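Journal club prep — side note

Before the paper discussion, L.F. wants everyone to see what a predicted structure for a comparable chain looks like in token form. Sequence:
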Amino acid sequence: MRNMASTVILYWYSLFQYTPSMDIHELMRELRENNTSKIVLLVADGLGGLPVEQGGKTELETARTPNLDTCVREGVCGLSIPVLPGITPGSGPGHLALFGYDPLHYRIGRGILEALGINFQVGPRDVAVRGNFCTVDERGLIRDRRAGRPTTERCVAMCQKLQEIRIPGVEIFVEPVREHRFIVVFRGDDLGDKVNDTDPQQVGAHPLAAVGEDNPSLNTAKAVNHFSAEAGRVLKGEAPTNMITLRGFARYPLIDTMQEVYGLRAACIAVYPMYKGLARLVGMDIIDGGNIVEQVDMLKKVWGQYDFFFLHYKYTDSTGEDGNFTAKVEMIERLDHEIPRIRGLNPDVFIVTGDHSTPSKLKSHSWHPVPTLLWAKSCRPDGVVEFGESYCLRGGLGQFKAKYLMPLAMAHAGRLGKYGA
């Protein structure tokens, strides 16, 4: 018995510690095969949750999800780990892992993703950063990190005020994104992106000063601190949008596309710009979508043009961040209602998961593994009958790193050949 236990421990240790000599993308290039199969990846942002009371149910377990439950009974499920056990991921690393890119290798700042999401042309002299409008009190302490989620029209008006700011030696571009979100691009010579976020990630604190880790980043930090001080001046009378925080400083990265790695013609159907930016970064075509009904309508419209479809559903995350358990349950049920329409297109592989967990109990992203279901014409059902965290814990996929989801999708789609003789 002791030897068996030791074997199990060594197996799980190897699962998380072993680093293969061949990069997984090299292996995908070697083994990939072309066919006409279709893969749909539906990401319910922040899907995973927690019970409000000990022994209770999570948001997903509370929701009535007959259509997702049918997928689970016919498919296989498990829990995906976006980065590593215990690590809380941002949306960027979480999605890159789902696309099959190791988030520990591809460390991409949120600023570049937001900029690409609104199709801003980022150049070689640019450092992009994601901005949030926030609310500060008379002492400069943050009282609301998202300024009460203002309208996008309000965001546009506030960005126009920020566009008045000038800094010697550095060009500044300020563009609205959505609600409280905007981007700032600093353009100049010898600018670096190794700069800390100015968002303290909590209320009751002052926005942080920017500090650079190397000489080019010190130049950026100096410009950032100047810009932030001027932002406080021009927004002083504009409560609740009377201050800003900045996070995710980034230059444009070099990254192989999904066409190059997997041989897939890929499309993204999303609403929020950041997720369009993530998709554009890995070479997906961007298809604009509205609510989930309209997104599925667009999926049907472009079905014959692509091999891989990424659908992004934001509202499971935003309701979790608001701490609204009931609303998150409702958003899950609304998503479930559209599942038959997706399956009606007859995909060969259909995956539903999240990029991370956002328990309404915590009002933030968390480190908890994410419920994942994979339905395919070639899958091996595991006997699980409901879609939820405790059920997925017993699923046939087990607990696995999210970066391996794409090889699983490729295999179930018949797009991977045999490895070795």
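L.F.'s comment for the group: The two ends are 35 Å apart (CA to CA). Keep this in mind when we get to the figures.
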